Fold:
Amino acid sequence: MADSTPKLSVCDFYRNAVVLITGGSGFMGKVLVEKLLRSFEVKKIYLLLRERRNVKPSERLKQIINDPIFNTIRRTVIHPDALFAKLESIDVDFTSEEIVREPQKTELLTDTQIVFHVIGDVNLTNNLQNSLENNVTTAEKLYSFIRNARNLRSIVHVSTFYSNCDRSHIEEQIYDDIPFGGLHNIRRILDALTESERDALTPTILGQLPNAYVFSKKCAEVMVQQQFADLPMGIFRPPVVNSSYQEPAPGWVDGIQATTGLSVAILQQRLVWYQGNPASLSTIAPADYCIAAMITAACDIRARHDERKKLESFNRTVPCLPVYNFAFENPLNWKQFIAYVGSGLPTAIERALSTIRVRLTRRPILSRITFWLLYLQAYLADFLRCLIRKPKRHVKAISSLQRLHTACTHFLSNSWTARNDNVKRMRSLLLKEEEKLLEFDVDLLDWEDYFRNYVSGFYAYIERKQKRGRD
Structure:
């Protein structure tokens, strides 16, 4: 029997829509803003921006618009300024009870229709108190504010695939097994403790979860279900988000973090063995695929909310908020990942040596030895820089790489499986003419072609960074 579920008309959903985005200055946020501006006829995009380093939100918006990520729009659109005029910065203060003040408060609550909550503290080494404040309290304040929006149609809460990584298999559901009687009790307990007492208690609270970041994301999901299930909302769980495949440019990346940070050693041809399991499966996806899925999810969330309202009118059982596990059956293991990155090196000998220089080992001592060698080289290099009166930089770079490696060891050592029925379902509901516009089926991704763009995109990012340094 054919599926009678109506198709999703995503372009119609966004036509003349007013969109509110948090985290619009970050990597995923900028890819989202660029895609909405270039591919959809939105009416306006509000960006909630905080003042940072004495730079006001209006100035930060100008910096965002000048970012090279929008060069495709500048090259291909006849009047790009007309598109950029759709962007408006909103001064937000998540440390205040009133996160947005008048007159912008009334403006947002009158106009906003679609919300993407992308902002989040992804620092894997942050303490529990700060992680809960940044990833739970911020979301709680935003949704308490936006529930009063008159024309609200859809909210996408961006979580992480690893929010429940204490399980080997992850369903598209919200797991509410928070210890100590739940989030409220944990907050109350932490508030009464000193910093050293919090640090001592944190491992017990986290249990089998590897860090405070993923725990706070899990808590945020439970908070959303408990407090805001009446809203047209869904939870989107992206995996590790890597550089884009095609949009806004092949291999686009805007920072060195997660797997991109670990790839630096390969592309710089260093000798370093990371601790992990080379056979473990990587859960990664290109940024443009994640963003296309998020954009589609907002439309699907609205359709599901309308269906829930119908069920409520007949006193039927209403399902929980929809969850979208953006995880697929076409993963790489970490050994393949290293080989693909190394295949982008310029010469044959460099490509051949790449998988010897950089690899994963189950033996921590081998990893430590290679890092000791890196530190030795770094100290010598910085000593020589001191002699010629140049600033030190090598030890700092190796320290950053080691911190990143330590934070990622759990994810390099384990594999997860997941259900992604909701993601597959909304992919099947796309109109035929919108499938190419919103490609997000990672199962069909050509990894070899992807990594050709990955390496060239990384080098392009380094070149942009060096140019900014010279300017």
User: Anything to note?
Assistant: The radius of gyration is 23 Å. Residues 26 and 282 are 23 Å apart (CA to CA). The longest strand covers residues 44-49.
